[in-house]
Amino acid sequence: MPPPRWLTAFHKTLSEHDKVSVFQLATVDAQNTPHVRSQIYRETLTPTSHPSLPLLLSSTDIRTPKVAELLANPGNPSSLAEICMWLDPTQEQFRIVAQTYIIPSPEHPHHARLGSTMGKAMKALMEEDNVDWEKKRREAYDGMSGHMKASWLRPTPGSKLAGGYEEAKTWVERVPNLEGAKTDEEKKNWEKALGNFALMVFEPVRVDYVELGIQPNRRRIYVRKDGEEWTEEDVAP
């Protein structure tokens, strides 16, 4: 099956406007309370033999509440989440419902469940395209700035700061790449931050694509059926 048309449009806009990378991610907790936050789109991976099964990549701190909302929520056994990405230069909006996978450190308890939950696209990338997901996680981490790496050393996101913002002044500000680490402490910081760093992999199953930059405005719903086929339906904007 060919790539879905929404994906072609998505990549076209991103290739022409490389500063557009922020999306909103919505999840629901065990009490059915919705939560939304902004994240960075990293890249798309698509199995060579399955071009209609793209995977969108982002990253997170494995300690954040959204991980539990996705992996340990009885009300959401399929680990579904919704992405909303507004592309202002072209007035396009993509709302993407996706099966979500978390790739933490191999030492983390959540890593054990990864093999049994992987979808077709993730397995194809591993078995046919030789993608090593732990290597991919490390590459994403290594590609971060030293300041960003240091953010994974901070206290658990959302936890109370007993010392207020004065405590924040004691945080490590920068973590160099491993080859640039000059002391045992810097090497230890690199490992600890990497341990908290996780990839998020989104496998889209439904896409609501709106084009407001053209007249008349357009809106299409794309739904992935069992297998690899996508259906399209024009709806009112």
TrEMBL record:
Chain ranges of the Pyridoxamine 5'-phosphate oxidase Alr4036 family FMN-binding domain: 4-103
UniProt name for this protein: Pyridoxamine 5'-phosphate oxidase Alr4036 family FMN-binding domain-containing protein
A molecular-function term among this protein's GO annotations: FMN binding
Species of the source: Heliocybe sulcata
InterPro entries: Pyridox_Oxase_Alr4036_FMN-bd (IPR024624), Split_barrel_FMN-bd (IPR012349)
